[in-house]
Amino acid sequence: MPSPSRSVFADVSWKRLLWYVAGALVLLAGAVLVARALRGVAAVQDFIETYPGHSDVPEGTPVGLPAWLGWQHFFNAFFLVMIVRTGLLVRSKQRPPAFWTRDNTRFPRTAGTPRRLGISVWLHLTVDALWVLNGVVYVVLLFATGQWLRIVPTDWSVVPNSISVVLQYLSLEWPVENSWVSYNDAQVLAYFAVVFIASPVAIVTGLRLSPVWPMQGRWSRLPSERVARAVHYPTMLFFLLFTFVHVVLVLTTGMLRNLNHMYAARDADDWIGFVVFAGSVVVLVAGWFLARPLVLVPLAERFGTVRRMPQPPSPTREPASHGRS
Ligand code: HEM
Ligand code: HEM
Fold first, then answer.
1. Protein residues whose CB sits closer than 6 Å to any atom of ligand 1
2. Do 267 and 180 contact (CB within 8 A), yes or no?
């Protein structure tokens, strides 16, 4: 059982996490100083003038964010909160409070005997399925509506333009933007990476670690379980880093307008988007607490057999007999 000083990242203590955060802040402050110095250099000024941070969007690119996109974006965040929570529970290697075995008398029946899963892994996989479904609907709608043109780079100038945007942000002299019409190129690259690279990597490595991956045949060893595990976890760290920078920038570069775009499908700077966003945060927090294995036992029981494990008394919590078990 991990000691109480362990942070939510199972193998990192709170103290070490604080050191990481402090180190990151020092690095960031250094990067700001370097960027500010660079902006005084004539060649860098020329570079920013040539590549102001935006490629021209192709003709026919839709303007604005439709309501469906706001819903997809919300559900994505909601499921990800639960996925991260259950992923970290799995990683903490605590003895699961219950185990779940699929009921093989019902659809989808398989020849092999179902494997017994820890309840956290079951929940991780269940939410993964919902997240993937949401993602598939999003990608289909992106391509059906032409909305993909806003987040898929179509020109190599996206690379120097992104460098220019990062330099401008770091030097704290931010570019003027109109993200209702198009994102800046650093946004395009980041959104593309999350949707079309990190998500598929999480899915493939996750499936490799899951019971659905074939045990025999050509694909049984590719990629190896070790590689899949070594990639799956850093992919989560990438998601967390992306989300952190993304949300900080959303809140610091015209918060009300940005939130109206994504949470109210409108281009305005009143408080409506903010209010919807605040409501969505309450739901996300609820998702984090809902993703507790024992809260979801009744749901798990509808799809298979659940065996609860007796809980050892924990020094930091009430004895199990008073708890939820
Ligand atoms: C379809 C998508 C996904 C599938 C099928 C999947 C499946 C799995 C499986 C089977 C495990 C291993 C459980 C075990 O050790 O028994 C796992 C672990 C984990 N997953 Fe996922 N996952 C997916 C997406 C994600 C995403 C998007 C994240 C985070 C953003 C994530 C975070 C984690 C973490 C942190 C662990 C623990 C890794 C460790 O022990 O080192 N997963 N996942
Ligand atoms: C709850 C915190 C979040 C907030 C407040 C937020 C806010 C926003 C806003 C305002 C935009 C539009 C940007 C603009 O108009 O300039 C946006 C776009 C986007 N966000 Fe988030 N976001 C959050 C979480 C996430 C997460 C967790 C992910 C994925 C891991 C994500 C992925 C994206 C993507 C891919 C886009 C572009 C979507 C498109 O146009 O197709 N966001 N977000």
1. 80, 83-84, 87-88, 90-91, 121, 124-125, 128, 132, 202-203, 206-207, 209-210, 229, 232-233, 236, 239
2. yes
Which residues does 174 contact at the CB level (< 8 Å), separation at least 6? 168, 253
- The pLDDT tens digits for 216-226 are 777 777 778 89
The tens digit of pLDDT for each residue in 190-218 reads 999 999 999 999 999 999 999 888 777 77
Least confident of 47-51, 121-125, 142-146, 292-296: 292-296
Please tell me the least confidently modeled range out of 1-5, 55-59, 149-153, 269-273: 1-5
Cα–Cα distance for residue pair 265/318, rounded to 1 Å: 46
d(CA 224, CA 209): 9
Comparing C-alpha atoms, which of 65, 28, 262 is closest to residue 166?
28
| Bridge partners (DSSP) listed for residue 307 | 99
Gap from CA of 124 to ligand 1 centroid (Å): 7
Q: In the chain, what is the straight-line distance between the N-terminal and C-terminal CA atoms, in Å?
A: 18
Confidence class for position 320, pLDDT limits 50, 70, 90: very low
CA distance 271 to 281: 15
**CB atoms < 10 A from the CB of 11, how many?**
12
